[in-house]
């Protein structure tokens, strides 16, 4: 191909895809590898807050300033991923006035627009806030869909010539003559989109430069290269409610603490979170007390949460980092800033840089910084354009009109499809006719599912994160098998079934954390549909031993047999 | 003045209907208190008794598995006689609309995912599609009905080794509806035989299917072949195609389930059972260990219903006969004891199809189906339980949901009727 320098990016989260987009737009030859699907790590497991910076305005002003800058950038380039809900920092009577003033002052110092609301004004905006709240600060927080954002970055990178390989794990970092020259990658199902049943394949990918953007996993990649990257993974729980109890991001206005934020997200609200250091970013306890803590503490702000229905809970791992020797004990005190670790300077190992720390809101800025760094290393002189060029889907919002008539879909379905697809709506929704609804809870049509299959292969979890299908109230009870059927006829029935099983199990993992009340009833119904009616738990097609069909009722009534309603040989009155 | 009956049955599903029919047989005056639509809307309409027990299954004969069931299983309490009595009441209630009563053996029926399940009774419209019967099969699905993918279902059946060849095709339904039209809209079009481009829907559909037919001796559709005029629709299609036509049971909204509900309520009418529907039973008044009245919440006021005997058939977790919060599982009307692990994380298993505790949640019956307290003593001498509210059976795994409802309903209803009329 070209003679442009080649860069290999490890990690398909917001940072990795952001870097891939940035470098591809600057003309570099980019390959990104990710061991799961996109957002598999921390990006897919966060509360979806687009920070105004308010949260860090007292404790970490450097981060706060970056947040408000990027908050504005993302509204511009990723409009279809952002819902500007606004945010409130709510003070309860027991929360200190001093901290409230500090928060207000801090926001002003960082350039974050603020407004103080009386309790009445705050309750007018959010009627379910507790009656005894004292006052609130309004800030420009928002909700952002991390899945859509990440997928849009990846799509843009591909448009600019990048190669993106998901389900491709780095199994070695190639070091020759004291320099990183590439990686060994194990593709779980060969190259290209993941397909159930395709054999795995090992590939050596050489590159002029390697970027380790694996966040909480950065230490593991460091180990493969023989360098120490001191990430301090910290877990946090997020609990999803079945509806939007609030339409504004609601923060508790007090110094750091667990369970202090509610983010409205699509049809749900997400409660967060905890902050606890863990050893292994993939193997840590997910505990019921954390879920209880979310509900019990946040119902101090919004009392109706106490008896509301939770759909599921999930945990994410923050990629916190602090320079060696800092020795912070409490993970909540570790800075949220990001760090660029050039292993040439640090470890005398040229050819690779790791990026750690940071947060989703500032992903683009992090990507810009490291892309600048990489360009300098490989001798490319090109400007970053990611702050100005909209992401695919956000180019032109004139399509957000008359979707109902345009697509022959009932208004809520049309509206939600267009919100997700943005300026791509026209292309996608008119591609298939008829275009029936596959997921009713989230109003996802066949066309949107089919569109996502281009990059998803047979990975229905990738379809899920792209479209939100199976992420609503029924958690896939009604639509999981429909999503799987969309894989046919391109893929065979055994692949359809295997991908269905994977999606079903993935949904179940998070559902278990919300299993009481209404949601336990819903889970029982899902179990009845899939086990009782569909017999998927004992599917004869999935068992080794064959079925002796001839031993069963073949429907034929033998001569002299009785009609169904005439059976009367039972011993009535025997009791 | 309270409304007074001999037997009051609380619930509106298979168990409640069976209990009411069974009690009525004893000569008792029976009233059914149904809150809202039963869970039959979500059920396949198939009536299973026992398909899997212990490590065995699919069972060709449900009675062969009874000994494999745990001691506290409701089938162990009511015995084979109870099961047979439940099926007898069912067969009498639904008449020719259901098949399978000619034998003890289970039939194998394919449902909408293309998986087969063992079942004791099946709607007449399903009968010619048994997987346990021979005859090559054509399955027909529709582009705009995402719930049933005929080619996938056909391949799934092939993968299970069915002893005939099966093929699936996807057609566009002769009449176009909005993209989010539900299955009921299709059924209605067939019911009314609506006109489409100078033709009628039924004949246009038959023509489209005839073009695809390649020697198969039976043709299956998702269960949407008419509602009020289903037999007529099916007969016309079969007549035009020259081969039997059958339905494949679907998920919600399940027309087969809804039709079963209608049949059961018709049977209640015929048996002289009084029906009060639309409002929930929420509380009761007792004198010692006898329940005197059941209180029904009629929006603005509580209406008392008096009865000599009461049958609780409010369903399980799905039907809301059981309730739960983060710490407890409860039976909300009478506060009957529902045993459960203390830690809610022990209510389920990490594997989606694991042996979940929650699936067995329910009240603990004594040998006359009276719910018991933690010490094994019955809560009330005149309260019995039937169906999903009774614990001890993992009905999803066993494929025994309908059978447990029929059997416990039959026995609880009969005992209640006998006690009331003594």
From TrEMBL, chain A:
Gene Ontology MF, one: flavin adenine dinucleotide binding
User: What cofactor does its activity depend on?
Assistant: FMN; FAD
Reaction(s) catalysed by this chain, per the record, are:
a quinone + sn-glycerol 3-phosphate = dihydroxyacetone phosphate + a quinol
Task: Give the record's GO biological process terms.
Answer: glycerol catabolic process; glycerol-3-phosphate metabolic process
What PROSITE patterns does this protein map onto?
FAD_G3PDH_1, FAD_G3PDH_2
Q: Where does it reside? A: Cell membrane
From the UniProt annotation, give the residues forming the signal peptide: none
Residue ranges annotated for the FAD dependent oxidoreductase domain, each copy included: 7-364
| Family annotation (Gene3D superfamilies) | BFD-like [2Fe-2S]-binding domain, D-Amino Acid Oxidase, subunit A, domain 2, FAD/NAD(P)-binding domain
Q: Does the keyword Oxidoreductase apply?
A: yes
Q: Which UniProt keywords apply?
A: Cell membrane, FAD, Flavoprotein, Membrane, Oxidoreductase
Q: In which pathway does it act?
A: Polyol metabolism; glycerol degradation via glycerol kinase pathway; glycerone phosphate from sn-glycerol 3-phosphate (anaerobic route): step 1/1
Is Cell membrane one of the keywords UniProt gives this record?
yes
Q: How does it sit in the membrane?
A: Peripheral membrane protein
Domain BFD-like [2Fe-2S]-binding, by residue range, is: 437-487
InterPro entries according to UniProt: BFD-like_2Fe2S-bd_dom, BFD-like_2Fe2S-bd_dom_sf, FAD-dep_OxRdtase, FAD/NAD-bd_sf, G3P_DH_FAD-dep, G3P_DH_GlpA_su
E.C. numbers: 1.1.5.3
Coarsely, its chief localization is: membrane
Recorded GO CC terms: glycerol-3-phosphate dehydrogenase (FAD) complex; plasma membrane
Q: What NCBIfam families does UniProt report for this protein, alphabetically?
A: glycerol3P_GlpA, PRK11101.1
> What protein family does this chain belong to?
Belongs to the FAD-dependent glycerol-3-phosphate dehydrogenase family.
Q: How does it assemble?
A: Composed of a catalytic GlpA/B dimer and of membrane bound GlpC.
Which named protein is this?
Answer: Glycerol-3-phosphate dehydrogenase
Automatic annotation (TrEMBL), chain B:
The signal peptide here is none
Residue numbers spanned by region Disordered: 400-422
Q: Does the keyword Oxidoreductase apply?
A: yes
Q: What is its EC number?
A: 1.1.5.3
GO molecular function ontology, one term from the record: glycerol-3-phosphate dehydrogenase (quinone) activity
Positions the record marks as coiled coil are: none
Main EC class of this protein? Answer: oxidoreductase
* FAD-dependent oxidoreductase 2 FAD-binding domain segment(s): 6-404
Q: Which UniProt keywords apply?
A: Flavoprotein, FMN, Oxidoreductase
Which InterPro entries does this entry report, sorted A to Z? FAD-dep_OxRdtase_2_FAD-bd (IPR003953), FAD-oxidoreductase_2 (IPR050315), FAD/NAD-bd_sf (IPR036188), G3P_DH_GlpB_su (IPR009158)
- Any GO CC annotation of this UniProt entry: glycerol-3-phosphate dehydrogenase (FAD) complex
Question: From which domain of life does this come?
Answer: Archaea
PANTHER family reported for this sequence: ANAEROBIC GLYCEROL-3-PHOSPHATE DEHYDROGENASE SUBUNIT B, FUMARATE REDUCTASE
Q: What is this protein called?
A: Anaerobic glycerol-3-phosphate dehydrogenase subunit B
């Amino acid at each position: 191909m070209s003679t442009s320098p080649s860069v290999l990016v490890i990690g398909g989260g917001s940072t990795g895809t952001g870097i891939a987009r940035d470098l591809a737009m600057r003309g570099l030859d980019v390959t990104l590898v990710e061991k799961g699907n996109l957002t598999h790590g921390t990006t897919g497991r966060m509360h979806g807050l687009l920070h105004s910076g308010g949260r860090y305005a007292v404790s970490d002003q450097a981060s706060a300033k970056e947040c408000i800058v990027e908050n504005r950038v993302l509204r511009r380039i990723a409009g279809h991923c952002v819902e500007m809900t606004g945010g409130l920092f709510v003070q309860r009577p027991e929360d200190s006035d001093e901290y409230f003033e500090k928060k207000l002052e801090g926001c002003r110092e960082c350039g974050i627009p603020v407004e103080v609301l009386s309790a009445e004004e705050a309750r007018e905006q959010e009627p379910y806030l507790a009656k005894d709240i004292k006052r609130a600060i309004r800030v420009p927080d928002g909700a952002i869909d991390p899945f859509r954002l990440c997928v849009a970055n990846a799509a843009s990178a591909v448009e600019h010539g990048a190669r993106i390989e998901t389900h491709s794990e780095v199994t070695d970092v190639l070091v020759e003559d004291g320099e990183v020259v590439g990686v060994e990658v194990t593709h779980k199902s060969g190259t290209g989109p993941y397909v159930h049943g395709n054999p795995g394949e090992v590939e050596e990918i050489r590159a002029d430069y390697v970027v380790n953007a694996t966040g909480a996993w950065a230490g593991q990649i460091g180990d493969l290269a023989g360098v120490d990257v001191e990430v301090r993974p910290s877990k946090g729980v997020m609990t999803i409610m079945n509806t939007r109890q609030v339409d504004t991001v609601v923060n508790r206005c007090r110094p750091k603490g667990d369970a202090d934020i509610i983010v409205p997200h699509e049809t749900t609200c997400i409660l967060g979170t905890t902050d606890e250091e863990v050893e292994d970013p993939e193997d840590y306890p997910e505990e019921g007390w954390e879920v209880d803590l979310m509900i019990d503490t946040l119902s101090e702000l919004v009392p109706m949460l106490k008896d509301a229905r939770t759909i599921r809970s999930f945990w994410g791992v923050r990629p916190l980092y602090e320079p060696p020797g800092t020795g912070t004990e409490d993970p909540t005190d570790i800075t949220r800033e990001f760090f660029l670790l050039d292993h040439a300077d640090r470890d005398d190992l040229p050819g690779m840089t790791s990026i750690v720390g940071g947060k989703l809101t500032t992903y683009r800025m992090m990507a810009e910084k490291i892309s600048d760094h990489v360009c300098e290393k490989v001798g490319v002189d090109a400007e970053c354009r990611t702050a100005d060029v909209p992401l695919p889907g956000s180019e032109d919002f004139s399509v957000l009109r008359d979707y109902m008539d345009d697509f022959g879909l009932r208004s809520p379905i049309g509206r939600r499809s267009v919100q997700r697809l943005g300026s791509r709506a026209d292309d996608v929704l008119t591609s298939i006719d008829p275009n029936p609804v596959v997921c009713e809870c989230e109003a996802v049509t066949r066309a949107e599912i089919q569109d996502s299959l281009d990059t998803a292969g047979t990975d229905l979890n990738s379809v899920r994160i792209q479209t939100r299908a199976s992420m609503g109230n029924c958690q896939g009870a009604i639509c999981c098998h429909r999503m799987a059927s969309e894989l046919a006829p391109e893929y065979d029935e055994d692949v359809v079934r295997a991908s269905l099983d994977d999606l079903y199990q993935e949904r179940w993992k998070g559902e278990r954390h919300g299993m009481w009340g209404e949601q336990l009833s819903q889970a029982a119904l899902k179990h009845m549909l899939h086990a009782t009616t569909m017999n998927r738990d004992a599917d004869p097609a999935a068992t080794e031993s064959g079925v002796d069909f001839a031993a069963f009722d073949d429907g034929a009534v033998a001569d002299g047999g009785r009609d169904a309603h005439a059976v009367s040989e039972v011993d009535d009155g025997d009791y | 003045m309270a409304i007074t009956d001999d037997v009051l049955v609380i619930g509106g599903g298979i168990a409640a209907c069976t209990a009411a029919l069974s009690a009525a047989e004893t000569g008792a005056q029976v009233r059914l208190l149904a809150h809202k639509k039963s869970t039959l809307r979500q059920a396949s309409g198939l009536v299973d008794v026992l398909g899997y027990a212990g490590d065995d299954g699919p069972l060709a004969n449900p009675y062969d598995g009874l000994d494999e069931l745990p001691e506290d299983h409701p089938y162990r309490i009511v015995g084979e006689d109870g099961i047979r009595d439940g099926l007898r009441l069912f067969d009498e209630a639904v008449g020719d609309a259901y098949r399978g009563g000619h034998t003890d053996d289970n039939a194998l029926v394919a449902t909408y995912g293309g998986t087969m399940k063992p079942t004791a009774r099946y709607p007449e419209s399903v009968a010619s599609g048994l997987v346990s019967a021979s005859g090559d099969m054509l399955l027909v699905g529709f582009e705009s009905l995402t719930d049933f993918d005929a080619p996938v279902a056909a391949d799934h059946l092939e993968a299970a080794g069915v002893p005939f060849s099966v093929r699936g095709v996807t057609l566009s339904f002769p009449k176009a509806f909005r993209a989010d039209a539900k299955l009921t809209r299709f059924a209605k079009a067939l019911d009314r035989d609506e006109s489409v481009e100078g033709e009628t829907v039924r004949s246009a559909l038959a023509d489209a299917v005839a073009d695809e037919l390649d020697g198969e001796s039976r043709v299956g559709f998702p269960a949407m072949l008419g509602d009020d005029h289903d037999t007529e629709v099916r007969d016309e299609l079969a007549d035009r195609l020259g081969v039997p036509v059958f339905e494949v049971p679907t998920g919600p909204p399940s027309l087969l389930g809804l039709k079963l509900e209608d049949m059961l309520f018709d049977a209640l009418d015929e048996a002289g059972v009084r029906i009060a529907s639309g409002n929930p039973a929420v509380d009761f008044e007792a004198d010692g260990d006898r329940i005197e009245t059941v209180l029904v919440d009629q929006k603005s006021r509580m209406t008392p219903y008096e009865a000599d005997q009461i049958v609780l058939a409010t369903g399980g977790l799905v039907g809301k006969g059981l309730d739960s919060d983060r710490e407890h599982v409860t039976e909300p009307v009478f506060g009957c004891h529902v045993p459960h692990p203390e830690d809610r994380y022990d209510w389920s298993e990490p594997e989606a199809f694991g042996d979940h505790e929650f699936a067995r949640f329910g009240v603990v019956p004594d040998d006359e189906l009276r719910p018991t307290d933690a010490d094994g003593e019955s809560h009330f001498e005149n309260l019995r339980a039937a169906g999903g509210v009774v614990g001890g059976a993992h009905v999803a795994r066993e494929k025994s949901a309908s059978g447990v409802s029929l059997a416990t309903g039959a026995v609880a209803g009969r005992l209640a009727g006998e006690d009331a009329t003594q």
